[in-house]
Amino acid sequence: MLRTLVASLVLLPSLVFAAQFEAGKHYEVLSTPKTATPEVVEFFSFYCPHCRAFEPFAQELNKSLPKGQKLIRNHVDFLRAAPPEVQAELGKAFLVAESVGQGDHIADAIFNYIHQQRASFSNAHDIRSLMLVNDVPAMVYDAGLVSPKIQAEAQAVKDRQDFYTKAEVLKGVPTLIVNGKYQVKFGELDSAHFQQQLNELVAYLLAKKD
Prior knowledge:
Protein name: Thiol:disulfide interchange protein
Domain Thioredoxin: 8-203
Pfam family, one: Thioredoxin_4
CATH topology: Glutaredoxin
Subcellular location: Periplasm
Largest sheet: 5 strands, mixed
Main location: periplasm
């Protein structure tokens, strides 16, 4: 009996949060079509300070997703902080890092390089140097950049960016979209329980049938 009661108390906050989620308050219902399969898509930029602040939450959210699901991360190229080609190259570098299981590590390194060290990337060579310094082997990185898999993923990132921009959904970063139909409103989440409520809201939207 005691064990059952303790388990119930542990689950209570998440159940309360789920019961309180409201369209228009915690999330927006978009006019874009719902995806055929569940997905969680994030748009972000390494140049965005808000994205840097959100990064730990994004990483924990990714770990909380149901088995078989992952956070589909899209690095945008439209911020004024750097030329679009440099931003696109950073996006591809991140995709290579993800492909070898170092996505979180490299994301932290790039965010730190830009926002903590106040350094900048002038070209693809600068980005490559950072990758090598952060334990991505040169052969792995160079091969990854030109692989059909990474090229296809980079094009998919660009296509998603263009699609949601044209739909007037993607107006800034970070932006989090669930099932192509629901956009999370970060400002309405409880700051004292932000991670838990974010995880619960995304799980709620993933399972939403309407």
